[in-house]
Every structure is written in structure tokens, then in C-alpha cells.
Amino acid sequence: MASKISNVRPAPDKVLVQIADYVARYTVKSPLAWETARLTLIDSLGCGFEALAYPACTKLLGPVVPGTVVPNGAKVPGTPFQLDPITAAFNLGALIRWLDFNDAFYGETVIHPSDNISAILMMADHLSRKRVAEGKKPLAMRDVLEATIKAYEIQGGLAIMNGYTAFGLDHTLLVKIATCAVVARMLGCTRDEIINTVSNAWVDGHALATFRRRPNTGSRKSWAAGDAAARGAWLAMLAVKGEMGYPSALTAKRWGFYGVLFKGKSFKFQRPFGTYIMENVLFKIAYPAAFHAQSAVEAAINLHPLVKDRLNEIKRIDVRCHNSSMVILDKTGPLHNPADRDHCMQYMIAVGMIFGKLTAGDYEDHVTADPRIDKLRAKMVLREDKRYSREYLDPAKRTNANSIRVHFKDGSGTPLSEVLYPLGHRRRREEGVPLLMKKFETNLARAFASKQRNAILGACLDRQRLEAMPVNEFVDLMAV
User: Fold this and answer.
1) Does this model's pTM top 0.85?
2) Which residues of 239-257 are buried (b: 16+ CB within 10 A; e: fewer)?
3) Alpha-carbon distance 311 to 362, whole Å?
């Protein structure tokens, strides 16, 4: 006789409860986290302003139905669009992520936690405009920064010891999880409603990582995060209406996330949720390049003076990487589009060595037509350095190391150019922050005239003023 299967609903999965309790009850006290959150916000917006110059990105922006304007809708910074918060989250998310220039964090899965900012800011803007219209007090930018800190922590906490890409899943599924939790809280959801929201995000469909990997690398990797953030915000809006959740979304035998998509494994956590991810996030300051290539580009540019006049004399280029770089960025053969090129270690190194720089424009067709790039790519040999791989995952170090040595046909060679910690690493904050601010000012100048630019800077450079500012007034500063 077949055994009976119980239809009794269990208590919510532990991970769902941990996320909801953190979002609803944790008080952010770390001064470093608050200050870094300000930097992540303005850097992310700056990345979006630079992306406005790229038609491949801007063609995706605007309302679903052309001409739609939403009363009390969110205003997408740097654009004329006022949209519902879900569409606005996609718009801003695509802008922030387009050039692969926004911040990152790393572990078993590499993430870009600033991918959450689009939904947080756009939902906060919509809610603030709605409240003002109703004669109520708008949200303050401090609310946005707090939600950002918590979204970073959720996304990073789930990524440090869990390899989603190993199962073919794109890391943006974590954008959806983190976004839905903090936006649900922003919408006024109770703890139980936040649990329902997060459970729905886990049972949702999840993107495959194939659009980030050879041979399919393409521009979806530049808007996938905006898509995930928008989806997370939409699920939160369903929860505030009372939509039910699924308590064993992760652990249900056969049908849960673990059983269907994680080969029966459960999540591991290195530490309780706090402010660790925000405090240790890695900024991309000088190079719009895949996270793992940041130090490789820096090492290549350091070699530029030694090789720029001897390119035809190069016999071999030895590149040492950690394992994640090998898996994600080691790419030979033709490169089909800018997204393909900014995820090719050999391409980025070649551009750095030839030109002594790497900008977003260097991934475009007119640059890749230079025959010297593919000639150098063909001479590169990438190998894993076990120490780099070990220290990449070591929580006491968290290096992101690459090194390059060039060998010439006459038997001579360059010194080893090794970079253990890229410019945006926490260990280089004193050096990096002034350059990060310069990056932001440069990006503001791309989109705004001097008077408007100065008004934005005035708000962004003073943390106390920024935190107290109503969200709608802050976003209005960036309207065009």
C-alpha cells in the first residue's frame, strides 16, 4: 500500500525567515556602511549617465507603450521619462549595468549588488510622489541608503558560499531576491508578507547564465539585472496586496528550489546578515571591465610603456589568473559584440597594453578592427595560479589577482606585472575614493549642464544633506 503524503503546510523555510527578520528588524549602525552606501549610489547613477551615450542601451528605455506618462510615477534619472516604478526600475537598471562599470562583490558567485539600486530608488521616488500628492511626508534618501545596505547584504550573503553559476543559473536571480525583500519593506509589508514575497521570488523562473558565456555572450547581460530588479519590485507589490506565499519554496521535496535547481544542496552562509558586503564592496573605478579583469587591465597598462614600441617583437604573453577568471573570461576565437569583448580577458589585456587605457568606447567595432589586438590575443597563455584562487576566496584577504609577463623573441622579457588588489578594493580606499569622485563628476558632465551638475553635486557630496533630502526632490535634480 502506498504511503500517504502529508499536505500539511510546514513553517516557512529558515532562509526565508532570516531574510525577512533582517530586513524588518536589523538596525544599521556602521558609519562605514552608511558612507559607502552614499558612494555606491552616486557611482551607480554616474555609470547610468555614461550609458546614455550608447544607442544600444537607450533604445530599450521608455514606457512599454510609447507616450505613456504615469501620474506620480518615478522619474528615470537622466531621461525625460516618468514611468510606473516597475518599468522605471528596468530603465534605470539597464543604464546602471550597461557598461559593466558598477560595483561588484565576489565569492563562489560574483555579483553586482548595485543592481538593486534601480528598483529601490525608483520605488522610493514613486512612493514619495504619491505621498506628497496625498499631503503626506515623502521618504528620505536615508531610507534609500538603508534599503541599499540591506539589499547588498542579502545578495552578497547568498553569493559568498553558494555557486549558482555552477548550476547554469545567472547571478541576477539574487538581485530579484534582495530587491523584493527590501522593496516589500519599503511598501509597508509585514514580516510575514516579506516572507511571502521572498518565497515567490525563489519559485519564480530564473535566467540561465548562457547569455554571459561563450559562445552566446550578448547584450542581455547588460539589461538582465534591470529585468531582475523590476521583477523583484513587482513581486513586492503583489505581496502588499495580500498575495500568498509558499513556505517551503526552497526545501519542498522534489519541487523546491534546492531539489529542482540546486541538486539537493542547501545554502551555506559565512556570517549572519549585517553590513559586511557594503563595507567590503569592490568599486570599478578606472576600467569598465568584467570584475575579474580589473587587476589584469591594471597590470597590462603598467606594462604599456615597456611594450608599446615592441609589439611586433612579442613571442608570448603569460597571464596568471584565479580559477573564476579562467572559467568566465578565458576566450579565444572571434568576438561578436561589445558584450563579448568586455568578457574576454585577452581582449582587455591587449587593449591595455597597446593603448595604455581601457574605456567603454574601446569595446566598439572601430577599435576592435585594429589588427594588433587579435595578434596579441593569439600570443596569450592563461593559467590558473592556485595561490590566487585560494586567496580570492579567503575572507581575510579577498584578493582579485592577475599577473602578466611578456616574453620577446630575442629571449628578453618584462618584469612580472602583478596586481593583487585592484584599485576599487577596500584595501585601496584611500587611493580610490578621490578617483571615484572624479569618475562621478566626469559622468555628470556627460549628461548635465553646469548649473544642474552643481546642484546634483551639492546634494551628493554632503552625506547629511543627502540623507535628509526627500527622495522625489533628489530625483528631480536629475530630470531632463
Assistant:
1) yes
2) bbeeeebbbbbbbbeeebb
3) 19
